[in-house]
Amino acid sequence: MALATTFVIAVGATTMRYTTVIKEMNVLFSGQVMVVSNKSIIIQAIPIGGGMLPQNSTERKIQNVTGVEKTVPILFVTPIDIGGILQPVPVNFSMGIPVEDWQLILGPTPLKGNIGHFPTTESSNEVVVGASLADQYNWTVGKRILVSSYELEIAGILDTKLALLNRCIVMPLKLTQEIYKYPGSVNIITVKPLQGYPQKNLTDTIEKQIPYVSALTEDERNDMIQPILAQVETWNLGIQTVVFIMSLILVMTVTLMSVSERRRDFATLDAMGAPLNHVFRLVILETSLIGILGGAIGIFFGSLTALVLASLYTSIPLAQFFPSIFEIVPPLYMLEIFAAIVIVCCFGGVIPAINATRMRIAEVLRAEY
Amino acid sequence: MKIRTTDLTRTYRLGSSEIIAVNKVNLEVRDPTFIAVVGPSGSGKSTLLNLIGLNDYPTSGKILIDDADVSLLSSGERRKIRLFRMGFVFQTFNLLPTLNALENVELPMALAGKPRKEQRENALKLLEAVGLGNRLFHRPKELSMGEMQRVAIARALANNPEIIIADEPTGELDSKTAKEIITLLFDINRRQKTTVIVVTHDEKIVDVADTIYTILDGRLKLEG
Questions:
Q1: How do residues A261-279 score in pLDDT, each as one tens digit?
Q2: CATH of segment(s) B3-222
Q3: For A112-135, what is each residue's pLDDT tens digit?
Q4: In angstroms, rounded to a whole number, what is the distance separating the alpha carbons of residues A148 and A369?
Q5: Chain A neighbors of B96, CB-CB under 8 A
Q6: What's the CA gap between B140 and B95, in Å, rounded?
Q7: Same domain, A180 and A315
């Protein structure tokens, strides 16, 4: 039971973690249209592929389209080189945003401890960093760091729950273009439609008027990822179902053997006049205890495995995940799996319990002698 | 408790042949008495005891308890009779190995729904009475054969039954311990006015019994 629970928790929590991260990416660009090169594909908020857009000309063309209120050019870079080591995908990101548009993209994201500030000039070398990155590298406000051989100064640490921002270095757009050698280029332009203007109309017009771009509404971005997420969740559910069925069979077999080994005890209870429901409850209680004990051990080791897996996948030190264990394995999920395993064990005890109620001293003794 | 059997028969099927374990037995038990049923192995002693103890169902014939036909009783009612009016002692003791002596004796009282305090007090008294006041918290594997049988007898007495049904209670014991157990059962019969029915090979039991039956090929015969 412990092994089954460990497996379910580890697999479930890991897949859930990634689907949550993917789902929450869209929070950043909520209510906006995203324009990328038609050579790129986009997964929620991340452009995949090397398609770049000439910043000024594309922005100008988009601004001329009816229904556009505001555009924000963004350079999104991954992987990034910190301290001379290239950090693998999907751990770390760098996002360049024009300094006047911080709030439009980051929303009301505060700075940790209200210390520091958002960079105010495009030419500065100041950046804000995600809390997870800061924890990993012991970065503090005012510290100077080396990113792709450029010395940058940390102006603030983002206080956010969003995984994407937690692993992000956010810097002025010009600085990003300079560091990553994309002068005058961006890979995303977000477009805020005029109040009440349909996103779909806007994307159709943009794609018609600018042939080298793809424009996606928020719904389209969700629709693209939804089948993949649904498939992941289906697989997860399938794995859980198989594990639970195997656990059910295992508990049933083990308990049947245990009841058979103790047939003399059950027959003695029967001879003493023990009520049938007492014997039945006794066996169910035993299998429930197996479930409770196995479930508790499994949740502990499963959560630990989920943390180790997260650490292995992201190269983030394991210790850094401990404070956020309940974000990686939500308590509600733990409770659901615990309840499921206890219920499975209870059901696994039903047939052995019925068997136990049928043990008769006369038959048992006759079989033994 | 009055038990009467009329033409009580129990047969088993073994492959294609039919074995008559108990053959038209007519027996009357009036309390309080000490009955010994003697017979060789396979003569039907234990089968008869299981029928009288309502642990088995006859193929034909009747068992009447206090003149009521038990075949008309539900399984639950039979259990209640076993729990509240009968006590069982087995040749191999049949103590629950995970429970200590005290808990084994408390068990029938727990099944009968007696309060926890009463269970503990009665179990202590019974174990003291069978001479095991100093072995209360020992599990069966920590007890000698004689001690295990004493615990089994204390357990059989737990719900103050009207009848004790004992299947070869001295079968696993040495002669000295067997004698002690026989004395204990005899004392219970005489002091508590509890009927004792014992099936046995042991002649020492026969010596103390009020009524002796022999059984051979399932047929019961009164010897004296």
A1: 999 999 999 999 999 999 9
A2: 3.40.50.300
A3: 888 888 888 876 789 999 988 888
A4: 84
A5: 265, 268
A6: 7
A7: no
